[in-house]
Amino acid sequence: MRIFSGIQPTGQMHIGNYLGATRNWVNLQNEHSCLYTVVDLHALTTLQNPKELHDASFEKVVELLAIGLDTERCALFIQSHVKEHTELAWIFNTLTPVAELERMTQFKDKSKKNKKNINAGLLTYPVLMAADILLYQPDKIPVGKDQVQHLELTRMIARKFNQQFGHTFKEPEVLLIEEAAKIMSLEDPKKKMSKSDGPAAYISLFEEPEAIRKKVSRATTDTGKEIRFNPAKKPGISNLITIYSLFAEESVHDVEKKFADKGYAAFKKATAELLIEKLEPFRQKKQELFKRELYIQEILKQGAKRARSIAETTMQDVRSKIGLLLPN
Ligand code: TYM
């Protein structure tokens, strides 16, 4: 199977997008042909300071390597290094009804949050995402729940192109880790964990131990004192149980049993210590890799080369199918 996925460079990687997506990226590379990208062009849809964007793209690559991506087994590249993404996005723009884009939840949320910067790129964001994906003819796309609607649009665009110009694109499927598809905010467990809600809402994958202890102990919990998984009635504790269960690789039921006669404080303490144990190697690896700039650049060069070789083949087919006059 061919696997493709992407992540934005901006903001720290947190346990939400790790459990929901990138942990799965690492697991998949052992058995499949995987391509992963840091989507710097997508990040431009929200205002970015150029230096910060530049540094964040490098840092995101370092982070992905620190959590275990191995470029002997997958291709890792920066989206803007492969020009075909924007070319195919333009072509897909001409096939995508504006009304479909206007009903995207993420567009509506981001426009509400950012009233002063509702740019055209924010609206066509999912079209660029469709281009990212379809260029590589992948079978499965590992993502969290918030991206599923964009994946449906991607499939719609593939279908539409195929109907109009003849079969060209595979319709890729979403690969969702059901239990981890939506890790919630520590502050407001009714909202998804997100880097844009401020540092108390999330735990970075590279967080210092003391900060982990503090954040977990302050995480919003529910009335009562039982460690019971019930997302509707006990969203705070249920979210922590999910996090514990995924990091410990124990079932939710086993976690409930283990802490049956313990209170919230003991459970939170155990969760914090578990997170510290699991995340410490990532933090150390990140520090080590940060110093190896040339090595990282070489990885990105090789990754883009591999990606380009697939993307160019797809684009040659697309250009000729839609009737562009090809250069000699
Ligand atoms: P991004 O950078 O917001 O998030 C990266 C991945 O993490 C998942 N995720 C979560 N999963 C569970 N719980 C959470 N709280 C949580 N927060 C984030 C996301 O679903 C995602 O899989 N548009 C994409 C990037 C993108 C992309 C692509 C993805 C661009 N092109 C092509 C796949 C294929 C995004 O903003 O992800």
From TrEMBL:
It comes from the Bacteria. Its main location: cytoplasm. It is an enzyme of class 6 (ligase). It is found in: Cytoplasm. A motif ('KMSKS' region) lies at residues 192-196. ATP binds at residues 8-10, 16-17, 144-146, 183, 192-196. Gene3D superfamilies: HUPs, Tyrosyl-Transfer RNA Synthetase. GO terms for molecular function: ATP binding; tryptophan-tRNA ligase activity. Homodimer. Belongs to the class-I aminoacyl-tRNA synthetase family. Catalyzes the attachment of tryptophan to tRNA(Trp). This is Tryptophan--tRNA ligase. It comes from Candidatus Wildermuthbacteria bacterium RIFCSPHIGHO2_02_FULL_45_25.
